[in-house]
Queue: 4 jobs
Job 1
Amino acid sequence: MFDTLYIEKQIAGHARTQDICARFPNATRVECDRYGEVFNPKSQNFRLQKRRPSLILAHKHHGRVLETPPGYGLGGHRNYYFSHMLNCLYDCRYCFLQGMYRSAHYVLFVNYEDFETDMETLLAQADTEPCWFFSGYDCDSLALEPVSAFMKHFLPFFSKRPLAHIELRTKSTQIRSLLKMEPIPNVVIAFSFTPQEIYRELEHKVPTLERRLQAMLQLQQAGWQLGLRFDPLIYQQGYQAQYRRLFQQLFSQLDSEQLHSVSLGTFRLPRSYFRNIVQLYPDEPLFAGTYSVDNGMISYPQSLEQEMTAFCTRELLQHIPESVLFPCTLAA
Amino acid sequence: MINLVVALPAEARPLIAHYRLTDKTTMGAFRLYRRADMSLIISGPGKIASAAATALLAGQNTSGEQAVWLNIGIAGHATHATGVSLLAHRITDHATGKSWYPPRLFDLETASASLITVDVPENNYHQDAAYDMEASGYYAVAGRFSTAELVQCFKVVSDNREQSTATVTAERCAQLLTGKLHEIDQLLGALAALAQDCNSWHAAPAGLERLSSQWHFTVSQQHQLAELARRWKVLMPDQPLWLGELDGKKNAAGVLHCLQQHLDSIAPGLPQAAHVPRV
């Protein structure tokens, strides 16, 4: 899976580092002082590196758990996000990570305990108010589970703290460790979907829609709280039929009454990320269309955005109650 | 384009012969050997000389395309036997402590190692790493002209704790490099394939030159034209960049407006499924 492991000196002796290294006995190990030496240099090509990314094992010093942008969330007032990992195993062409990072290497922060300490502090500040922690924005929450043991470590923390809610956003089918646990009511596993036609063109290396749906069904049967994320909504001529088919496929099999939440948002990117991505993928049809620029964000023309959101909302409300639908109206 | 940077004439000789680099020129203190798709420069020893030679060679490439860069030479190593070849996975400048990490995106049997660039010959081999006198100067400069994946450093162990630098003669040096020509071929082949991919993504569509020569575009307009040409190539891959309506346009602004309108009329976002080529 990995030919090269870059390891920060500081965490070379960490038990988690040792465990991960033991999984890749043939990988070349390269020591570095700080992960940024490998990950951040300007002159790197994300698209080339995506062909063979390496794993960087590092220590996260600051900014481990951050507030989400205002207005973001699933109904809670205290919303935070955190990333135990940077970059994703999958290669979705619409993903902002391509424009945000210069390197396609995966960075895994092994000091999980420090993340928990920070969450503990925020929970203490919140007193009796619930806190939401969102994972899966700078990486996929589940995809590297066999290596990272992220859920295996973090979920017991949440099981003991009912006021701490976590959303694990994913396109992965790595659910074995979840199925081995008792479901935890304050944990939501949120699966992202696009229609089959979009999946085929843009979601490279992602498990098929059917496999993800199967994973959801297994988790739902086991009693886990599930979410559905239709973000980004991608325009294509005939998108209405594509999304209608997708919703029918999902809701004909999932128990929609048991769904925790459904959210949606149209394709959008910060302009600087969009520019970087176009430099990397000048030949990508997704970036050859017409976009609007508003407040530093690239998005579909407003009329199209509104049309798509209205259509998908209407369609979704035929399957779910409005109380679990959370349209994403944020700029990013 | 492939650029080779070597320190010594003895390191260069087998490469010049093998790659038939017959076109020889002298630029300042540097000797340069070329053929159509490959250049080799002899920098002389030391990281400053290597940096200068690399910059000089980079200045010869006016195409704007991503070039392959390979520093080839001999190195010392504490434990490796002489004749072992290594690709640097970390290059550290001993004087400053700064390190670079060339990404390796290809399957080759060549082992990799840390490489430390020193200012004076190293005979003690303190660390489990290769030692040379050029790589940090070369890498710091070459990395400014090509993406890091295409900039690599290939060394053959010439001395170690058993065989000191005193045993390294010009003949021995040439002999060590000659024994690695097949490996170098493979490495250059892998790097050239990566560079070719990179450059093909950015190739201009047919017809762009015609537009550029027919109307005068300011620098800002050239950027706009390049962006429209990119979209054209994706949306209409089989058609040269041209519209009948352009014939009557008096200036570049009119041309850009006409192209923009045409492309915007095709489709927003991801075009119709049937027209989308597989990525």
Note: Residues 4-327 of chain A form a domain with the pyruvate-formate lyase- activating enzyme fold (CATH 3.80.30.30).
Job 2
Amino acid sequence: MNADILLSAQDLSVRFGGVLAVNKVSFDVKRGEVFTLIGPNGAGKTTVFNLISRIYTPTTGVIDFAGPQGTLRLTDQPAHQIAGLGIARTFQNIELFEHATVLQNLLIGRHTHRKSGLWSEMFFTGKTRAGEIEAREKVEEVIDFLDLQHHRDSMVAGLPYGVRKVVELARALCTEPKLLLLDEPSSGLNVEETEDMAFWISDIKNELGITVLMVEHDMSLVSKVSDRVLAMSQGEEIATGTPSQVQSDPGVIEAYLGSVDDVSALRRENYVPGGAA
Amino acid sequence: MQLLQLLISGVAQGCIYGLIALGFVLIYKATETVSFAQGDLMMVGAFSGLAAMTLLGFPFWIAVPSAIVAMGIFGVLLERLVIRPILGQPAFSIVMLTIGVGYVLRGLITMIPDVGTDTHTLPVPYAGEVLRLGGLVIAAEQMVVIGATVILCLGLFAMFKYSKLGVAMQAASQNQLAAYYMGIPVKQINGLVWGLAAAVAAVAGLLLAPITFVHANMGFIGLKAFPAAVVGGFGSLPGAIVGGLVIGIVESLSGFYLPEGFKDIAPFIVVLLMLVLKPNGLFGEQLRKKV
Amino acid sequence: MRFIFKTDYNQDVKLAKHGGHVFWYSLLGLVLVAAPWVVAEYWLAQLTFVLIYAVVGLGLMLLAGFTGLFSLGHAAFLGVGAYTQAVMVNAGVPFPLALVCAGLFSAIVGIIVGLPALRVKGIYLGMATLAFGFIVEEGMARWESVTGGNAGLMVGYPAIGGWTLDSTEEFYFLCLLVTVGATLAIVNLLRSSTGRAFVAIRDSEISAQSMGIHLARYKTLSFALSAALAGIGGALYAHKIQFLSPEQFSIIQSIDLLLMVVIGGLGSIHGAFLGAIFLIVMPQLISIGKDFLPAAIGGAAGLQGTVYGMVLIGFVLFEPMGLYGRWLKVRTWFQLFPFYRRGLFKRQKSFQKSDRLK
């Protein structure tokens, strides 16, 4: 695998019963870039994410990851090891720990970096205490980065949706990932919050040096932050390239809007009142 | 021949477990809560049949339906007063609530002076009669149990498949909010489901009473009905009956062929085997959170 | 109204968050240590029971309240610990070693019971633990050569070195020591990454996994710790009542333990203690209350069950946060007076959506 490629998916397919949710999808994510998956609903984008986080196992195909521990075949790893390898993700429908505070949620994000074992925790030795303080310091850096100071001690269950999305992002950042998977980061956010998100994604890429793999529907956000885009439809890839290349690709337009013929039928010149086009 | 005899008594006992399990599954399918009160509802059903026949002096053919209807109404009231206020709480709280309801039912029945602490016989017209078939001796009680279970199952199947109420119940169980939006009166439906489950429990109690007599601790049989529901798969109505039959037959056979003490734990060993081999039961459901 | 001005991360890490905590818990400690000289022997014995049940309750709270794994057969671990202790002490094994073994054996049984937990969730797990509970109880009754079966087993006094603890006071201090140790261990776990991992598993398994938490390992650990605590409590229980029989560890006892943690307040350490107090005090209250009730009700056999059931229903309906929750609300009312709003502790209502795919 090329030295500048961080994640490489080759011929990924996954079948659920009779449905082929992902069909021979291949893509490479380069180090330090923001790579976006776009496509209409049901295209299989979140399924690809779930394949990378090992919630599902692909029927065929492999995923390779060039993390700090060398190049590993992700598809051979169990789900709970993915975070330790340097891959973090957010969830489309927000999977936060509802009955804990924001701070506790973020501290859970530090789990892979813990240094204390069961017995030193039970006796709360100096080593455990030092570990707790260190975790807290790292978490505070993320809180500072995402302006979550107000909400540190609030129970997640009572927070508004926009804040929860940011907490979800913060929790993923606390794991100190090399690759961050963002599943629809702007869904449910208003215009200002989406702009903040765009700035944060750029900062994540430029200041923190984290590679971002994103699923997104908001095309303006995609154009603003992405380096490269992969368009999917019905589980298959239809186009790859820069945002502008992909957005003008005829296959992509057809997937979103229907075929060129259908579009022309909608044109005003061709409109026949009360009848077929 | 001995085997056949054991099988028949196993099937009869299994039908009882199946009926109680049916109550669990009805409530679970509708509201995704587990009710530990089914066994005690069965016990109250048996006592209400007893009261109808002895206290009120009804003849058998009036006492039985009136007991069933009375229990049905009781189930609806129970849901309205006690279960409805806590919908939306975590499943465990609801389980504890139903355990509490079971305690109260058992306690109240026990507290009835003279009646609660004794064992009573339910005066049924077919008591003591047997059918002799070849070398087999089949008690009339057992035949009534099996027959009644079959009829009840067919009735419920028809209801769920063909009636609007049945479809509405299934919808409410899968997505409450969407069911509300579709105009389904979810709260009333939940009440009806509880009423139905209580009525089924009453049937089980009335069928069991001639075999084990009516007493306040009858409800503990309900604990063996849980393995039946697990074996069948908690979301499946036919599974409940099949599970009950499996447990009944296993219990009957192990009582005869295995050493002392295995009879009581055989259903639970079956549960553990089931959870290891086929965790979702024979007809089970797939539980997977979609993210 | 107390505002804690935070200047140091240690303030969030340490156990006693402010002066008030230090004061009140020290006072509690003093009261508990002084109890044998202040309180009548009968009540001291009851207090010892409270401590024993609190230890077991801590374990069940860890498993059910903090990790979200509901064990309907917890009395089995209590029984394993009790019988292990009894058998070993009767065979001459020194008390501390027997106690450790009781905890260890229970932990092993806990790991075995926890195996289904790795594959099944929710009600199915409850059923598996229920099944284990029945099987262990029957096993204790059948294994007559070791446990004495249904005829029961006598238990000797605990002996440390040459010193036999045969008085109520001495045994009380032993239990106090064990309880304090167990509580500190659990509280320490809960403020470090293991405790947080448990809470994560309770709230969202999928995202716990994506944070790198090994579900199987932590679920097994939770079962093991919970069972070990129940086993240690069981060992003390054996010495306290001095006569064991299998029916003491039946499903009724399991449900009593669950009652204890639910009424105490699921998800809090205080809840285990409050629940234990409830469990021991309630029968006393009922006995006292019987005198005020008409004979027909007061003398009836089913009274205790009815009262327990109604209290349980009452708590689930009106105070799901349990006794500890009610205490929190009362305290907040006083702290915020007169600005307390009912909405402060409002429950989140959620519509039920099935996770089933079929």
Note: The interface with chain C takes residues 53, 55, 79-84, 88-89, 91, 95-100, 103-104, 107-112, 114, 116, 118, 121-124, 128-129, 131-133, 135-137, 157-158, 171, 175 of chain A (CB under 8 Å).
Job 3
Amino acid sequence: MDRDARGETTEVDTFLDSTLESVDRAEELVVEAAKKVGIEEDDALSLGMAVRECAVNAVVHGNRYNLNKKVHLTIGRTTAQLVIRIADEGEGFELDELPDPLAEENLLRHSGRGIFIIRAFTDEFAVRRISPSGTEVTLMKNVAS
Amino acid sequence: MSIKLTSRQVGDVTVVDAAGRITLGEGSSALRDMLRDMVAKGQKKILLNLSEVSYIDSSGIGELVSGFTTVTNQGGALKLLGLTKRVKDLLQITKLYTVFDVHDDEASAVRSFA
């Protein structure tokens, strides 16, 4: 398989509808890919949870269930990491503006834990705006060498 | 599999046995509806048995928290029973493990409502 300029091979590259079924599908694809590269079952399921939260953000908050908008999922790997990118076509969000879900005053809030869970179950996490509109979230999980 | 919820009465405590996944969509809304229905009926001692729940996402956690605050605000108590390791880990990293009264044994959990 070819490697791109980042030294990354692409295992999965797919566009998903903005539905909750796509959230399940994204989770399944990532858990499957994680196990395939030797990530232990427990860590693979945790990574799947992080992807689930990310996909929910893309479908619900980004694309707002708009079936004209897609969620772009890619799963790649380098020698050291599994690299998952999830992009939506929404208006984007500012990481710095998200409230801390662990703060005393936020503990009993109904929502706002998704990004925290993503960070907890990945080794690296990055967010960037994409053109013409949308957000791409990159999750990286270390692979045992 | 989404979630299956059944309730039974043990003395004056309503035990809700949950099985499956509590995630955004059917799972979390089913739990929300059931807890709201119980509060509306005046059931204020609720023990949520999560021993057969393999998975909860942030939406499911949100429903647990909302259920907890709704029942508490009505003068009742919502307690948790039988957390799997994955669910326990999730409640710990979100600092909610100490917010909920969590039990491993049903009999002692029921007694704790007295």
Note: The longest helix of chain A spans residues 41-62.
Job 4
Amino acid sequence: MKKNCIYILVITVLLTACDSFLDIKPYDRTIPESTDDFSALVHNICNEMDQGSGDAGLAIGEYGETVLLEADADNMATNLTGGTDRLRTYIGVDLSARQNLYGNLYELIRNCNIILGEYENGRDTREGQDIVGFAYAMRGVCYYQLLRMFCAPPLADDAQLGVPIVTEFDMEAKPVRSTMQETIDQTERDLKTALDCNIQNEMYRFSNDVIHGYLARLYHWCGRWSEARREAQLVVKNHPLLSGDDYVKMMQTQYGISGNKLLVSNRLSEYQLGISAASTELTERPLSADFATLFKEGTNDIRRKDNLFFNRKRKNRKLIFSGMRSAEMALIAMECAYHLNMPDSALAELNDFRHHRILTDDYAYTMTTLPEVDTQTLVKQDAMGKPLTPLIQAILRERRKELYLENGDRWFELKRNGRPEWWVAVNGKKFWTRKYMFTWPLKLDDIRLQPGLIQNPGYEETF
Amino acid sequence: MKKLVYIAVAAMAVMMTTACKNVDDEPALNQGYDTTFRVPDAEPMTAEDSAVVAAQQAEYELNAK
């Protein structure tokens, strides 16, 4: 009898263990409840921004990504090294990895949705409003990045599809792509709601000026010139352009907020090893003649003086930057003036910008002394699809110079201004950057699991 | 009989502490699926292409070295 009992006991244990084996996974997370819980979640995201790692690091831009995109664009002369350096040869090498960014951004959106959907007790306190404002701002930034990376340029003929909009924490939801306009509206709504929260705590990174800066970037990307100009001018007013030693000091400060920088990724010096390695790789590939010769004033341009940006051998000396500084806003404002048919304002602002960079008195252009349009350069049209004029070319060139090695700006400028195609030579072969490569692929897993989710053109063949 | 009980208890203890260690594990989502996009093959360079690269290198040697 005892023996039978033991057999029954053993069999019972064997058959009843892990009865939840086939249950839905708990996703290994618990939903936060208190203000402290949500604050901890936000601090975790901020920590990623500081480290330039994880989902948040990618959302605001991190140094590794900045270097990769700089290598993909045309500021560097890949043909001179023929692929013998350690930088990426062209975007095609890494297109498949781009889909991971898509997943990263949606993971961050999910965390923001948890905050926005689940946070109740304490939401109306000052700290609560900072937390909620942060979540709106961060989600807005994610949609802005998704818009730039995974959608066609909004002013292009093929611009129709946006990205899936997810505004609630629902792990089982399978949304399809929204329209381009719906994605733009969602981004704008999130950023404006964040502004309404009026974030006060500096620890939460998204000050009102930073959010205005992101709105300026969004409107600029979408060709909403009037609104972009208004937002950009507001930021510049609060963070005027720097010149002389102040500018040099800011550009030589790697970590933390300095000068008129508003937002900085990788802001802690403890992560200098990775940045230092990336900087070393950058020096292995010279800058292209096309880019280097834009600095026509030579060392009378403060960006060339004492090799601030690059040396005589066209090797990089500029510090990598991911974040936001007000020079970008000034450049946005002057380009908007041009598209709003305000050429005199655009020229005056361009000259004011050059006054802060050129050390001699001959910095100012007139409409008649603007350099002629260079027909040999890659960009041949502006964001509206119109042929370049001397004025818009001068503005775009100034942006190209100033924002070199910042946020992958040149890559996105190429995308915004016509998506030109070009090739690089590696081991006796030509590798083409094609028009479709400017719009990256949605994650294959999502395409497979979400019926109706449309992949971007050019990514039909997989293996 | 007692020996059998000890063995059974020991066996159960082992089962209870080690079974289903990876209860949350599932097959990787991409297992058996494609994960990579095909990009156009590189093209062979023509003499004209090589001349373009040579000119760029010559310009660099002349002006930047």
Note: The longest strand of chain A covers residues 422-426.
